[in-house]
Amino acid sequence: MAEQDPVEDLVARACANDRHALQELLERFRPRLAQQVRARMGAQVRSSIEIDDIVQETFLKAIQHIDRLTWQGEEAFASWLGCIAEH
Question: Are 33 and 58 in contact (CB under 8 A)?
């Protein structure tokens, strides 16, 4: 199995418009973000909105604003994604 790039490196490369790094970064955080979204949504909301739709919208916003991100650690990156999803 190939060794994974550190998240910090992926963020730096994604900020420099490396599409492969951005894709790898988002796919690495997809399960965590989906779990976070699922935990925040009530049953009534889950019945009308797909979790994957929110994750996709979150990733779209993240892609649009990744160049503004300042690296503050992996947990801060996960929180940044969570904040985007929340809004």
Answer: yes
